[in-house]
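Quick question: what would this complex look like in 3D?
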Amino acid sequence: MRRLAFILPVVLFLMVAAALGLGLRRDPSILPSMLIDRSIPTFDLPGVVPGDTLGLASSDFTGKPVLLNVFASWCVACVIEHPMLLRLQAQGVTIHGLDWKDEPAAGAEWLAQRGNPYTLIGSDPRGRTGIDFGVTGAPETFVIDGSGRVRYRHVGPITPEVWAETLQPMLARLETET
Amino acid sequence: MIAEIGQLALILAFMLGLVQSVAPLLGAHRGDSVLMSLGRSSALLQMVFVALAFAALATAYVTMDFSVELVAKHSHTTQPLPYRFSASWGSHEGSMLLWVLILALHGGAIAFFGRSLRETLQARVLAVQGMLSAAFIGFSLFTSNPFSRLSPVPLDGTELNPLLQDPGLVMHPPLLYLGYVGFSVAFSFAVAALIEGRVDAAWARWVRPWVLSAWISLTIGIALGSWWAYYELGWGGWWFWDPVENASLMPWLVGTALLHSAMVLEKRGALISWTILLAILTFSLSMIGTFLVRSGVLTSVHAFAVDPERGFYILVFILIATGAALALYAWRAPAMRSGALFSPISREAGITLNNLFLLAATATVFLGTFYPVFIDVLNGEKISVGPPYYAITFIPLFVPLLVLVGFGPMLTWKRDTARAVLRRLRWPIAVTAVVAGAGLLVFGLAKVGAALAIALGVWLIAAAFMLLARRWGLGRKGAETGRLIRTTPLAFWAVAVAHAGLGVGTIGVAAMSAWTDSEVATMVPGQTIEFAGHRITMDALGPATGPNYQAEQARFRVEERGQPFLMVSEKRFYPSSQTQTTEAGIRREVMGNLYISVGESATPGAATVRLWWHPLVEWIWGGAMIMAFGGVLSLSDRRLRLAMPTRKPVPVEAAEVAG
Amino acid sequence: MRRFVLGLFCALLIAGPAAAVLPEEQLTDPVLEARAREISRELRCVVCQNQSIDDSDAPLAADLRTIVRERLSAGDTNEEVMAYIVARYGSFVLLKPPLDMQTILLWCAPLLVLIPGGLVVALYLRRRGQVAAAESIPLTDEERRTLAAILKTGDAP
């Protein structure tokens, strides 16, 4: 019984060390999305580009799997990501845009300068829809399936690796589901 | 050139560390004095070489040698000299070298001052210390080399993070490290004792000053960090339960337990296995702390550039060091029992309870800090553990502990009775009850927690004073008080002072938690606000410059009871590193601090002014410094530093005459 | 000017440490504002290092502070406001971790050490105490006198 008390410290320590060792492989700053496998929140946003009467609404997310990209004119990483998005658009991928915490005029100007990869764009100057999506910054990209449910969220710019390894296979799989 | 000398010195130190790890251990096992003395000489030489390496790095920093990569990353031509020097430890690689330096210094000290120790014990202690040294120097050399060169050499460097360009932050890491690494001595002694299979009063007597000095440094280091955060971060917080802060608190808590446990061991020969376990745990927590800061396993404002690979190396090392030590403990400690007995009401028992509470507090902080990692590993979920958790778990633990602290020194060794100790403490108990009652009456149930916490602080101060009063024979007929005061040993003063310091700190914490007042307003020059009994007028709002920054500065005229004084607050921008800081204006008054902090305002020509009233906040750090001073008093007591009579050779004639 | 006076008035009514809340954000109702501050202190800023949204300067923190106030003004209880934010950002955002099967170990940490430890210590002390009690021998008169002398002067006679 007494011996047990002496063995306890080393046993507890080994458990802690193992947990810490495994913890090294995790990234404490990655926050998983709360919306995975849930329907997107209901929203109806006006357009960004002058003359755009459609805007973006939650009802637009039915039929086929699409990407929803959160961007802003003040976002530096979005500039880096932008060419990739244009390339994806050329390949036929449907990307909707959410202009987050941005003046519509600034967003429109930014797109006019760099090109518009988006099928539909919504303006969210107060950021409320972004918060409903649990957005923590720009850029972020959501993979939404044909029935309007969020299946994945990627934080940060979409790199060729991210597209090839994660997003493309996911979209392909979702296409076969519908 | 200098960097290469440093590099070479470090490599040599590493090799010496390897020698130091093996030779004396072998020597102690075989009884070979030559091998054992090799431990001493390699420890001393290693100390010299590590010092040389550190001096090389510091020189590179001070002379702005931007060809050394580290210097280029943390120094700048406009950086003031003191901060060029302190940048030596303002990075992961540099601070690791500081850690290694202090480790080597302690190893050298054991070699130099420990000649009166039993030879085999000293040899084994040096061997363990050598293993620690070699491992950390190896870590530095192979994964975090401070001397790597940069080519092409940049014209100017990236400056040290402006937040670190501050006198408080200059001293904070060295003091902390003296604490963390100072506990390595206790660790080495504990492991050596386990290898030897015995612990005696001489062991405890030798270890205690080292534990004390490490504890003093850690206390001051933590207080300094907290004080710095208060005046630098711009909103008057002083403790955030941030993982890295917790990493410094845990060794302090266990180190305090170790300090008291070692005292019992020295005086009464009891609590042997407790002391050994605490000695192992304290330094292990120091190492886990350094793992935490550098591995990226938790996010923290304090973290150095995080690198899971480096973290892995440190973890492996902790696994080996602590794992082996605890395994040795499980194997050998059960046989190392003392015969010393004591009754459930005695000072030994009090200290045992003290150990228990401190361990519980440490476990709480440990779980709070690492639980997010455990849960993430278990099922990928992310949770947070913040100040609300600690308020519910840690604080309630400290209340009974602080009550106990008042009783502890009043208990006699071995046997005491509850009635006797309560009688000795009747005056402090009465004073505390009066203060508690008055507090409840004046502040009512709304502030019952704070009132009781203040009463707790008063209890500690009163009990400390009672300790001295009893010693001085106050109120006792026929006592020669003057003489008794003069002959009070420093170590006795130390207990009273340290525990009183704890009381002062408690009062500060209580006041800050309950009676902080604040306001926020948009102000333009010429505007006046009334706050906390002061009239505050913004006199001017405009730009200002410093050696390496530009600022938007606000000047305030503050009047309190007709006495006007000036307060300044500014928001600084450092162009080299593109960072912003807020410098608050702080006015220290008797009952508290007036704290002003400015920020931008959407209204042009105005500033967002935040005002705080921080009652008795300086008592928090004052209390900590008083505690540290108590430690210094204890260390200064000659009785502690005369470790053992030195063995002097007996002159031959005297022996013949005696025979 | 009116906005400033209003803001100042509100600020004066609030007794609690202000950190990052801007005058423009504060609610007019002091009870609601106090609740908002309380809730904000328990919500983590997800883009900062270990700060609450009450303390953080980050834009997202400001947005969340505003949302907390909007929900409170709409009549939500404190729990409902927290649930609203948790639904969007997860339990990560709670600075006070929830009490459930996963976190029971965390919440019971102090007791887990104190109770078994206390039992062990209590048994240990009882055993030792019994033997110690048996061992004590009273002082002789000579010893008693020596003791009195020491207490009086601080020196042995």
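Answer marked as accepted. The interface with chain A takes residues 273, 277, 280-281, 284, 288, 291, 295-299, 308, 311-312, 315, 318-319, 322-323, 326-327, 329-330, 333-334, 370, 372-374, 376-377, 380-382 of chain B (CB under 8 Å).
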